[in-house]
Every structure is written in structure tokens, then in C-alpha cells.
Design a protein that fits this description.
The structure holds two protein chains of two kinds. Chain A is of the alpha/beta class. Chain A has two domains: 1-80 and 171-256, Rossmann fold (3-Layer(aba) Sandwich); 92-170, no CATH class. In chain A, 40% of the residues lie in helices and 23% in strands. Chain A has helices at 41-48, 73-79, 96-103, 112-117, 120-139, 155-167, 185-200, 212-218, 236-241, 243-250, 252-255, and strands spanning 3-12, 15-25, 30-34, 56-61, 66-67, 81-83, 173-177, 204-208, 221-226, 229-234. The mean pLDDT of chain A is 90. Chain B has a single domain, classed as ABC transporter involved in vitamin B12 uptake, BtuC. In chain B, helix 2 (38-63) packs parallel to helix 7 (172-193) and helix 3 packs parallel to helix 5 (120-140). Mean pLDDT of chain B is 86; it is low at 1-7 and 319-329. The chains are: A alpha/beta, B mainly alpha. Chain A binds chain B through residues 49-51, 72-74, 76-78, 82-83, 85, 89-95, 97-98, 101-108, 110, 112, 115-116, 118, 122, 126, 129, 134, 138, 141, 143-144, 146-147, 149, 165-166, 168-169, and chain B through 188, 191-192, 195-197, 199-200, 202-203, 206-207, 209-218, 224, 270, 318, 321, 324-326, 328-329, 332-333, 335-336, 339. The structure holds adenosine-5'-diphosphate and magnesium ion.
Chain lengths: 256, 346
């Protein structure tokens, strides 16, 4: 297991966004996290990545099951968890290339002093960062857009840029929050291909997605959330037929 | 064929930039030979000092997005450090430099670590308050600062072998000194903004949560930006005190802080050349409008409003990105074309 979440709970005032949610992801596994809007999926990601502090529960990460429950976001990233956001939060005024270069921050160590002196080690590191970032941009098929301002990219490309930026942090686990939202069929097929390739590189993926075709085709295991609770977990085919899941999506009345 | 064009285009751009830099430097260094006007040189010296200040403010506000409405406090810290060291302990201008930079930087570090958990408008308000408190403190700590009467201190002197050269009250030596100081500041700024720290600062300004999730320790980097910005204000304060030969709280009031923010916004937030142009424009324009006496402030306000309406990003806003707009490396282009061709075949 690379990620193991035990009994995670989080409430905002009276809203119980997450209640006792447990979930695990194995190495090189693609796990889907689905559920209707407001089910608590994004909150779950925010708790794992240190953006929110969970009220209770434990988050263990890595081969040695290190406890990262209350780590700040930058430390979680340093441990090897990267994420994308539901609403593509790229650094708008920077070029696509610079966006990806930001991702390498915690994996580089040139000091302020070496930056001021322009030491040869710092220049070498900077070249390496640039090469690696160009490589990642090509990996997500954005090589030609390297010098475009991120804000000028269409939404679909911003999503791919976010993926490249997340990969630049050298993660072992990638959390993707609705990466296919707003994409057309061709773009979705490309995204599917891209996620498979990421997984082949030994990176585990936990993906929130509404497009059932994409989730069913991609994931080895699916976890379903509804109103902050885990209602089902299993293989794609089994989850699809689960009555609780159908109720959650379609409502009790309609099902009957 | 296309490969050649791309490379030579890049080199030509670089050559042009170098030529422009050298030309500009030559003009700036030769200027006093063509223009002996004491008053005009003096305005330029002030503009130079303001440019250094705006560059420092640009680190906090321009790169990192931390609006500081009390920046004059850090400026004052540098100026008063030299004044006190000179008046009370007889230290010379040159020897005081490290102390001025360190005292302002340390003030930024301590103040920043207290208030940087605040965001946006709240931070702006606290910095505004800090600026006012500093001015009032300087006014009232008579024993140390001379209160409202200020402190009179000695001008810089260069001793070489057994000759000595006093900078005195002429503008010329200060012109070269501030030009040199400005160049040093520009080089520091360029190197920082092109480094991983510069990128991290801009990322924090754009989206703090996303930056933190990309592994950036946002608290530490914001504090670092605050510290560097204050240290540069200390540097400018040192220069200012030496040039004036006199410091008093009046020079470090709220108007100064606001003027610095206006310069930054006018020139273009986050741009090095913008910061300098903004400082030059807002130092020189009011001087040109002097014949209008009190009415000049109206015109001044009108210029700012027109700017905000028609060019809200500032005169040179976005220039930093412009420097990065080089042709995509030919290697990338070729590989992509191959991939594209293969895709088309299928
Ligand atoms: N920062 C917050 N403050 C208050 N309520 C929140 C916050 N974030 C999420 N919520 C609430 O938590 C619930 C789950 O939201 P979210 O995790 O975004 O759902 P999903 O991503 O599954 O659509 C919603 O009811 C939402 O209103
Ligand atoms: Mg969501």
C-alpha cells in the first residue's frame, strides 16, 4: 500500500463533509473516487494534501507507512503526493514552461547565495530543470505551447499543464480532481492514454471523475462516496450494479 | 533552413538587448558632462534612490503579492541606522553600510514573522499602521533620533593614500554613487527573479494554495521576500541619509509609502524595468509641473486615473514574461512534428 487512509472525518460547522472514510491505494494502481456533487470528494483530497486539517483519522503514506496526517501542504508534496485541482489552478501570468518549472522547487536546492553569485552549480541545476520541464510539457503534448502565457491556453490545455506541473514534483501518488471536466470525446481519449502512461511510470493514481466510461475503463478499483460516507468499494463492474450506488446517483424514489 | 533562422533570430534579440544596455549605461554615465545643471542632477539622484526603493517594494508587492503601505518604515530604518551610528559613534558612511542593510532586513524579518499570517487588505492595513507607528516613534524618541528636529550627519568621504575626497553637497558624486547602487540592485533583482525563488514568489502571488501543493513552503518564502525587500529599503535609506546629510521623520511619512506604491503600479507591478520607469516618471513629472504650484497634484491625480483606465497593468507590466518569449527550441519543434506526422499516418 502506498496510501492508507483510516477513518477520516471532517466537518464544516454543521456540515459533515466526511465521516469515517477509509481508503487505500496500492503501488501502480489506479483507483477511482466517485459520488454525486457535494459528496465530499474534493474535501477528501484537501485533507490528504494538507490544505485542510481533518478532525480525526489517520493518513499513512509510502512504503514505511509514514503518518502525514497533519503535515502542511508543502511537506505532503515533498513526501511524494501531487495533485491537480477541480478548477485548473495554473499560475496565470507565467508561461507554461515556468509553471512546470515551479513544480520542481522542492526537488532543487540552489541557495539564495548561489543564485546571487550565478554559481556554475546553480546554472547547471537550472538547465536540468529546464530540460526536465520541457520534457514533461512534451509528455502532455504541450511542447509547442511552452512559451505561451498559461492564462491564454484553452481550458483543456490548462488541465494538461496542471498534470505536467504536478509530475514535476516527482510524485509517487497523483491525485486528480475531475481532470476530464469540460473535455470533448477526443480529448478524453487522449487523457485516458496519458493517465495510463503516468501509471506505467510507477506512479499510483487516485482520480475523481464523473465520466463513468472513463472511470470504468481506467480504474482497477472504485470507491463511492455519498454525503461524506463511503457507501461502496469494489471492481468497476460490481460497483456499477450496486443498489446503494444507483440510489445515491438516481435517488431512492426513481429507483423504486 | 528554419533551424538557422530560429537561432540567429534568438542571437539577434540578445545582441540588441546587450547593445541597448551598453548604450543606456554610456548615456547615463556621460550625462553629467553634457548637463551641469545642479538641480536637474539632484532630481535624478532622488529618482535613482526612489528606483532602488521601488525595486525593493517590487519583491514584496510585485512578485509575492504582499501589499505594503508602510514601506517608508524600512527606508527610515536604514537612514536612521547610519545617522545614529554616525552622530553617536562617529562611524563613517562606508563602514555603516552593512549595519543599515542588516537593521532594515532584521526589522522586516521580525515584523514579517508577526504579521505575514494576515492576507490581502488586512496585511495592507497592518503595514500602514506600522509605517505610522515608526514615524511617530522617530518623532518622540528625542534622545536617540533628535525627534522632529532630526539629525545632521556627515557626508561620505573617500580616503585614498593620503588624499581625501569629500562628497559634500554637490550632486555629481551622488549621481554616480546612486547610479552604481541602482545597478547593483538591478543585478540582484534580475538574478533573484530568474531563480527558483523568483518563480516561487510569483506562484505564491498567483495562487497560494496551488503553490503550497507544488511543494513551496509559502510562509518561509513570503518571509524571505519581506526580508529582502526591507534590506533593499535599508540600502536606499543609507544612500539617502548620506546624500541629504540630514534625516528627519518627515521624509518617511505615509505619503512616501503611498508614492512608492504609486510608482510601482504606474511602472508595472512585477517588472524590473517598470519599477525604474515608474520611479523616474513620478519623480520627474511633479518637478516639471512645479510652475503649476499646488494645482500640480490635480494633474498628477489625473495622470494616475487615466493610467488605471487605459493601462491597468502599468506602463511596462508583463515585460518579465516578454523576456521569456523566445522561439521554442528547435529540438522540441522537430520532435513534435515527428509525433504529429506519426499520428496523422495512423
Ligand atoms: N471550505 C469549506 N467550507 C465550508 N463548507 C465546505 C468547504 N469545502 C467543502 N464544503 C462542503 O463540504 C461538502 C463537500 O464538498 P466537496 O468536497 O467539494 O464535494 P465534491 O467535491 O464531492 O463535489 C459540501 O457540502 C460543501 O459545501
Ligand atoms: Mg469536487
Amino acid at each position: 500500500m502506498i496510501l492508507e487512509v483510516n477513518g477520516l472525518s471532517k466537518h464544516f460547522g454543521g456540515i459533515h463533509a466526511l465521516t469515517n472514510v477509509s481508503l487505500s491505494v496500492a503501488k501502480s494502481e489506479i483507483v477511482g473516487l466517485i459520488g454525486p456533487n457535494g459528496a465530499g470528494k474534493t474535501t477528501f483530497f484537501n485533507c490528504i494534501t494538507g490544505v485542510y486539517h481533518p478532525d480525526s483519522g489517520k493518513i499513512l503514506f509510502g512504503e514505511y507507512a509514514r503518518d502525514i496526517t497533519h503535515h502542511p501542504a508543502h511537506k505532503v508534496s515533498g513526501q511524494g503526493i501531487a495533485r491537480t485541482f477541480q478548477s485548473a489552478r495554473v499560475f496565470a501570468s507565467m508561461s507554461a514552461l515556468e509553471n512546470v518549472m515551479v513544480g520542481t522547487f522542492s526537488r532543487t536546492n540552489a541557495s539564495v547565495w548561489s543564485a546571487l553569485r550565478c554559481s556554475s552549480r546553480m546554472i547547471e541545476e537550472e538547465h536540468a530543470v529546464r530540460r526536465r520541464s520541457e520534457e514533461l510539457l512534451r509528455f502532455v503534448k504541450l511542447g509547442r505551447r511552452a512559451f505561451d502565457v498559461a492564462a491564454s491556453l484553452p481550458f483543456g490545455l490548462q488541465r494538461r499543464l496542471e498534470i505536467a506541473r504536478a509530475l514535476a514534483t516527482e510524485p509517487r501518488l497523483l491525485l486528480m480532481d475531475e481532470p476530464a471536466a469540460g473535455m470533448n470525446t477526443a480529448e478524453k481519449a487522449e487523457l485516458l492514454e496519458l493517465i495510463r502512461k503516468i501509471c506505467e511510470n510507477g506512479i499510483s493514481v487516485l482520480i475523481i471523475e464523473h465520466d463513468m466510461k472513463l472511470v470504468m475503463g481506467l480504474c482497477q478499483r472504485i470507491v463511492v462516496l455519498d454525503s461524506g460516507e463511503k457507501i461502496c468499494e469494489g471492481k468497476p463492474g460490481d460497483v456499477q450494479c450496486d443498489t446503494k450506488v444507483i440510489e445515491a446517483y438516481l435517488g431512492k424514489e426513481m429507483h423504486r | 533552413m528554419s533551424k538557422k533562422n530560429a537561432t540567429s533570430g534568438y542571437n539577434r534579440g540578445r545582441l540588441l538587448r546587450t547593445a541597448m544596455t551598453v548604450g543606456m549605461l554610456a548615456i547615463l554615465f556621460a550625462l553629467p558632462y553634457f548637463n551641469h545643471n545642479e538641480y536637474q542632477l539632484d532630481v535624478l539622484v532622488s529618482a535613482g534612490i526612489f528606483a532602488i526603493l521601488v525595486l525593493g517594494l517590487n519583491v514584496m508587492t510585485g512578485y509575492c503579492g504582499l501589499l505594503n503601505l508602510g514601506y517608508a518604515a524600512f527606508f527610515a530604518s536604514g537612514a536612521y541606522t547610519y545617522a545614529i551610528l554616525n552622530v553617536k559613534y562617529g562611524l563613517s558612511f562606508w563602514v555603516s553600510l552593512p549595519a543599515c542593510i542588516i537593521s532594515a532586513g532584521a526589522l522586516g524579518l521580525v515584523f514579517g514573522s508577526c504579521v505575514l499570517r494576515l492576507k490581502g487588505d488586512y496585511l495592507a492595513l497592518v503595514t500602514l499602521g506600522f509605517g505610522e507607528i515608526t514615524r511617530i516613534a522617530l518623532n518622540n524618541m528625542d534622545g536617540l533620533t533628535g525627534g522632529p528636529n532630526g539629525l545632521t550627519l556627515s557626508h561620505p568621504v573617500i580616503r585614498f593614500a593620503n588624499k581625501s575626497f569629500d562628497f559634500g553637497i554637490k550632486s555629481l558624486p551622488y549621481y554616480y554613487l546612486s547610479l552604481l547602487a541602482l545597478l547593483v540592485t538591478i543585478i540582484i533583482m534580475r538574478r533573484l527573479s530568474n531563480s527558483r525563488f523568483g518563480r516561487a514568489w510569483i506562484a505564491i502571488k498567483e495562487d497560494e494554495v496551488a503553490a503550497a501543493c507544488m511543494g513551496i513552503n509559502t510562509g518561509k518564502l513570503k518571509l524571505f521576500a519581506f526580508c529582502i525587500g526591507s534590506a533593499i529599503a535599508g540600502f536606499a535609506g543609507w544612500l539617502f541619509a548620506g546624500k541629504q546629510g540630514f534625516v528627519s521623520p518627515e521624509s518617511f511619512d505615509f505619503t512616501t509609502s503611498i508614492m512608492l506604491v504609486a510608482m510601482l503600479v504606474l511602472g508595472g507591478i512585477g517588472s524590473i524595468s517598470g519599477a525604474i520607469v515608474g520611479a523616474l516618471a513620478l519623480t520627474i513629472i511633479p518637478e516639471l509641473l512645479r510652475p503649476l504650484q499646488e494645482y500640480r497634484m490635480f494633474l498628477f491625480g489625473a495622470i494616475m486615473i487615466i493610467m488605471m483606465l487605459f493601462r491597468p497593468q502599468g506602463l511596462l507590466g508583463g515585460v518579465r514574461i516578454f523576456e521569456e518569449f523566445r522561439p521554442v527550441s528547435e529540438r522540441v519543434r522537430q520532435e513534435e512534428d515527428e509525433v504529429l506526422a506519426e499520428d496523422l499516418k495512423q
